[in-house]
Write a structure and sequence with these properties.
With 175 residues, the protein is of the alpha+beta class. It has 2 helices and 8 strands. It starts with 11 loop residues before the first helix and ends in a 7-residue tail after the last strand.
Length: 175
Amino acid sequence: MRARTRKPFWTVKRAVFISFVFVIALLTVTIVYYRDVHKELWAEEAPIKAYAIEAAKLTEVTGITKQVWDGISWVVQGKTADEQEVYVFLTAAEGPVLTLKPTEHITAEQAEAALQSSEPDAAIKRTQPGLLNGEPVWEIFYSRDEAITKYYYAFYSFRDGVFVKQYRLVGDKAS
């Protein structure tokens, strides 16, 4: 009697098929997780975005920034029908709107240059628009290496780049 030989389990076709199924499953899980994590943020942004589009007559939204400082404020960056880039400052959906056109404010790079001129050793981590005491500002988060690394927030007027205020974070670490 002759012994039977079985085909090996890991054939090339099976290996390719199982790898393909594994990659598809991994992508599906990643997408579902990403959507679940961002669901609350997207739900919070949706009415702000809709209100900014309606109030400022935006045709396209290119960015939304949430800032929590004195209170929660939102800055929506977008384009109008004449392709002009504008910033729309909101404190809440359905709240008052402040819209600034490019000729009415300085750029983030100009605000960073103002900081660098006063503190040349500053390592800028983030620059974003926001509201401070109801006025539009550029919020610059940066660090300086002294004996230990210290972290700061500097605020510059959004309209003309004048220094407004600085806060030093306590401790040697910031998140």
